[in-house]
Amino acid sequence: MGGSGGARRIGAPERRARLALRHRLTGPARASSPEEVADTLVALHGSDPATVYLALGARLADAARTVPATERALYETRSLVRMHGMRHTVFVFPTDLTAVVHASTGLAVAARERTSLLKAMAKAGAPDAAWLKEVEESALAALALRGQATAAELAEDEPRLRERFVYAAGKSYEGVHTVSTRLLKVLGVEGKVVRGRPLGSWTSSQFRWAVTPEHPELDLAEAQSTLMSRWLRTCGPATEADLKWWTGWKVTDVRRALKAIGAREVSLDEGPGYVMADDIDPVAPPTEPWAALLPALDPTAMGWQLRDWYLAPELRPHLFDYSGNVGPTVWWNGQVVGAWAQRADGEIAWRVLVPGGVSREAETAIGVEAERLRGWVGATRVTPRFRTPVEKELAG
């Protein structure tokens, strides 16, 4: 989208200042409710259910309210919704964004998912698309009557959900799938169902299902422009590579959305970047130094594809698993400086990984955050779904 000659320079220190304030990581910037955090961050990673709560707790002024306030937002007022979004990943979004996410990113993924399911069933000699459609409509009707239900409960109403078929026969990853497992996943991506209450505590990964709240069908380009502008206000500046990675869109979609919202080009260490047109002015750093303990898959740590400005490359082998999922991280003044884990007795163990360590002030502040985290998590034990080398070691 043009050259960067003459564009305003935004260096790493200013990017860290923006991150600190806009991601609500400094004390004065902390929020009063889960809805406020989600609205600011746009999306909270939900692949690991505990991440949602830990990410919110790190940003709430009253962290002790994290669990009850989040459960109320997710399962009572429904002001937050857990659903598939960018990159075919589960996120928690503000409810007013569900239509935007569905139109901008969900529909294209959904079409591929349904095609894949039908092909897999055909190869296995399973019933055809008409049969699957009939089962789908029956299951959705049953779910609407129940309000929320597990796959097993739905199969009581629609027994055909229990039917099995062999997936990827002859491959190393061959497996037997039930219709319910694959179909509910497709319906989730299509925006027809969302995850409801878990079967266990807030760390449980087994969920009931619920029919998606009604939302308008939006134009693709309009939805992409809306999502792009919302994300850039929190995470800008970002490179084209960052935007393509975070959204999962084609580069042509990214460029079209940037043009539609009138994004301004700026100069970054990585090359050209983009901000909203009214967000070009310099941003001053926080008035006080700050520390944070963020969970695995936190939306800040996973917010950009190009991360050198806040995460030194030499730390990556310690902090990421083999699939590129970040583990729990320790932050000091806008940079990742270490890792943390919860031990069996509830202690929050942490370690500084940067060469030369950090100042005594930083160590004290990190210790305060570790105690704050332990205080509100209480007796609950949290193990990341995607574990990293240093997290395993610290957990003992």
Question: In words, what does this structure look like?
Answer:
The chain is of the alpha+beta class. It folds into three domains: 123 residues, no CATH class; 107 residues, no CATH class; 105 residues, no CATH class. The protein is built from 14 helices and 14 strands. A four-stranded antiparallel beta sheet has the order 11-12-13-14. A three-stranded antiparallel beta sheet has the order 1-3-2, with helices on both faces. The N and C termini lie far apart (49 Å). The model has no long low-confidence stretch (mean pLDDT 93).
Summarize the structure.
This protein has 396 residues and is α+β, with helices and mostly antiparallel strands. It has 3 domains: 12-75 and 217-275, no CATH class; 96-202, no CATH class; 291-395, no CATH class.
Which key features would you list for this structure?
396 residues; 3 domains; 16% strand; alpha+beta; four-stranded antiparallel beta sheet; 14 helices; single chain
Q: Major sheet: size, sense and barrel closure?
A: 4 strands, antiparallel
Number of strand segments: 14
Strand arrangement, major sheet: 11-12-13-14
Number of domains: 3
Structural class: alpha+beta
Helix count, per DSSP? 14
Order of helices and strands: HHEHHEEHHEHEEHEEHHHEEEHEEEHH
The N- and C-terminal alpha carbons lie at a distance of: 49 Å
Unreliable spans are none
Broad shape: globular
Q: Report strand %.
A: 15-25%
